[in-house]
Amino acid sequence: MSSRPEILFPLFAGAETLKGVGPKTAQNLLQIGLETPRDLLFSLPYSVLDRRRRSTIRGLELPGIATVEVTIGSHRPARNKGGAYRINVTDQEEEFQLVFFHGRSRYLEAQCPEGARRLVSGKLELFDGMAQMVHPDHMVPLAEAAEIPEFEPVYPLTHGVTQKTMSKAIRSAFERLPVLAEWADPEQLKRETWPSWEEAIRQAHSPQGQEDLEPETPARARLAYDELFAHQLTLAIARQQDRQLKGRISQATGRLQSRVLVALPYKPTNAQARAIEEITADMASAKRMNRLLQGDVGAGKTLVAFMALLVAVEAGGQGVMMAPTGILAQQHMEGLKPLAEDAGVVLEVLTGRDKGAERRKKLEALARGDIQILVGTHAVFQQDVSFQDLRLAIVDEQHRFGVRQRMELAEKGKGADVLVMTATPIPRSLALAQYGDMEVSVLDEKPPGRKPVKTAVLSTERMQEVVEHLRSAIAEGRQCYWVCPLVGESEVMDLTAAEERFKHLRAALGEGQVGLVHGQMPPAEKDAAMAAFVSGETKVLVATTVIEVGVNVPNASIMVIERAEIFGLAQLHQLRGRVGRGSAQSTCLLMYQPPLSEGGRRRLEVLRETEDGFRISETDLQMRGAGDVIGTAQSGLPKFRIADLEKQAPLMAVAQSDARALLAKDPDLSSERGAAARVLLWLMKQDQAIRLISVG
């Protein structure tokens, strides 16, 4: 089935084919991504109006919605152009007014003749002591009372589209609802007592009260599951295809690994040992490895990565590790050097700085296989870089690399295994959404000997005390990061804030003691300022958030974050992780500007209470929502219409295991349930998955 099944054709027609939708309205609907009847069916109401009939408005809390039968009284046309046209009406006990602006007398007299009975529904409010309903939403003769629903769904709208138009279009889309074969796991359906897909759509659009809008209602949970299942099925198909790609069997001998383990002053944590085991098993398989190594700040990813690189060397090949910046590559190089010496392997670094004869020499050695492990930046992608036998590619800080670059890297070594590392703890539901095509290893323990970082929260009013504290710390030979706030969206303003703080600290602590780095600097200047801090020449580094990822200065034991309340939790956690890497007791000072908002207070409290990145990321998810946690633009997170990753996280894991189980049983989706799942993929616009399966 490489083209859309016929049963879905009516759902994928243009929106203008629906009742009440002309070309202009169709254009307007397009503004909010509604192009077809299918899109309208997946656009669920976000609220519901209670329009149940009452005998009187007496006792109603105003302002509020009322639906009531009235007798039409006297008309009071507008006195001036654009003024209000008023009609007095009475229900069983109370009198109030219907108000129309720009109302046409003739029309209103014909619709509401004096003495007639009408059912009106709309928002009632008090004006000058009199209850009034401005432009009733509904006003019908009693014979047409059934037209007003007891509960009316409220939809997201756009310019030029009213609730009336929307409701009419959705009712028209209902007429095209096909009866589709069931793709969900029968056990899951039974357990959750979910309705069929068609029934779930109908129920989700007919809420009988506010409680029916909750994500856990059977209809909404079912539709969210369908969306997540289709997404996970797509990832599982991509993973299946990926695994069919011929990998290289890289068998570990343990010869080099054992040398490193003997030389280590500590024993690896259980989490490290488990991750090394998982990676070694993957590399020994004929299938290509595609694994994510997720570890909190300071959980010891470097050791795991190096052990994996040694497997490649033990098997007679080469490994490469990539970092997003030259400074980081240099740091990886320095961190791995002692380990490489213990193992007796040749390690080299390649960055954009390597030029001329020196670069040529390195490239020749790499092509001959004399360099066993290469650490580099994007420079590794360049055409002239070739390996003798690349078996493993490690990408550090995944969120700075795109999927395309991941693939390019793997191309350098046909069938090379790929390991992706991230120091950003991601909540499980998001990790599944973003990396569902990858196997995941998690480092959730800290190596022994790392002291926790003391975290204090204090007001910017105590700035002078902090500067004094720094002065005595510098006198003891310690170093400090000072992170400046993000000022709005403007890098120019950020810069001003950082430059001001730099001048202030330089004046207080003395010339030559304080360095400055920010995103607007030329790379060479930035590198020089970082290098001066790494070597201990400068004692305080004033920075914007450019230092968030990766830099390692063991002597830096103080982190000051100014206006900490405006940073995201994950960002604060990453920044705090820059200290606490040496033997000295480290401190992180979170400075806020009073008064603190409720959200700001909660964020700073969570940081003060815990250093567990996974707990912090879960709190972050609850507070900010999925898109913001990873940063929507580069997150690679799919946009779900119905599923809510914050509130329905467990559903994502269920969808993943269902998708993988179905594919394991029925790899080409040819069974009855497999065919239904194909229809679901078309319904959810997962065309990529269908292409993969057709090719496969």
Summarize the structure.
This protein is an alpha/beta fold. Helix content is 41%, strand content 18%.
SSE arrangement:
Blueprint: H1 23-30, H2 37-41, E1 47-50, E2 53-54, E3 64-76, E4 84-90, E5 95-101, H3 105-111, E6 117-127, E7 130-134, E8 138-141, E9 151-154, H4 163-174, H5 186-192, H6 197-204, H7 218-244, H8 255-263, H9 270-284, E10 290-295, H10 301-314, E11 318-322, H11 326-343, E12 347-350, H12 356-368, E13 373-376, E14 390-396, H13 403-412, E15 417-422, H14 428-435, E16 439-443, E17 454-459, H15 463-475, E18 479-483, H16 491-509, E19 514-517, H17 523-534, E20 540-543, E21 556-561, H18 569-576, E22 587-592, H19 598-609, H20 613-624, H21 626-630, H22 632-635, H23 649-665, H24 672-683, H25 687-695
Parallel strand pairs: 2-3, 5-7, 10-15, 10-16, 11-13, 11-14, 12-13, 14-15, 17-22, 18-20, 18-21, 19-20, 21-22
Antiparallel strand pairs: 1-9, 3-4, 3-6, 4-5, 6-7, 6-8
Helix pairs in contact: 6-7, 7-23, 7-25, 8-10, 8-11, 9-10, 10-11, 14-23, 19-20
Describe the structure.
By secondary structure, the protein is an alpha/beta fold. Among the domains are: 52-148, OB fold (Dihydrolipoamide Acetyltransferase, E2P), CATH 2.40.50; 255-443, 3-Layer(aba) Sandwich (Rossmann fold); 454-610, P-loop containing nucleotide triphosphate hydrolases (Rossmann fold, 3-Layer(aba) Sandwich), CATH 3.40.50. 41% of the residues lie in helices and 18% in strands. The chain is built from 25 helices and 22 strands. The strands form four sheets. Strands 12-13-11-14-15-10-16 form a seven-stranded parallel sheet, with helices on both faces. A hairpin with a 7-residue loop joins β3 (64-76) and β4. α10 (301-314) crosses α11. The longest helix has 27 residues, at 218-244. It is globular, with a radius of gyration of 32 Å. 41% of the residues are buried.
